[in-house]
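Marked as duplicate of an earlier ticket. Keeping the data here for the record.
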Amino acid sequence: MKASTVSLMIAAMFTATAGAANWSSEARDDGQTQFYVDLQGEVPQRCRMVTKQDLTMTLDLEKGQASEFKFKAWCNIDSSNGLLVVGAQPFINQNNNEDIIPLVVKFNGEQGRIDANTNAGSTENYHAISKNFTVSNATVKDMGSMNVLTVQPEVNSWEKAGKYATSMYVSLYPQ
């Protein structure tokens, strides 16, 4: 009985010592001891964009005035370059699904069109803009400076009456 009690106490002592993860290893003959530290971490998202603007833009179809979409961009990359890709289906009359008003989009000196031939549904020329630009790569996720994408309808006063609509994608890729 005594032997069994002693062996249970010894087993409990070793179990308690093994569970005490904040103690270093047993000392070697030369006196050295060490910790075994598990390391872990997580890489944040590759790219992120943010805007304070509403994601629904009403374009001026009476005067053809340009509208701006403002956003900030960040990528978790070694360089500070990102690729912005912009496109949309045609800006089409919702009453007859035929009439299209071309859109001119501009970003950092590059210009593109979204019309019947150049749109997200075409087999070629489906992006209106594909442009490398500078993004923030700060480790504290500082989103950097404001970027401006301009969208302008090309009106000529011959457009048929009705509501025109489409959805535009603004995508950011790390470079």
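See parent ticket for discussion. Residues 87 and 169 are 6 Å apart (CA to CA).
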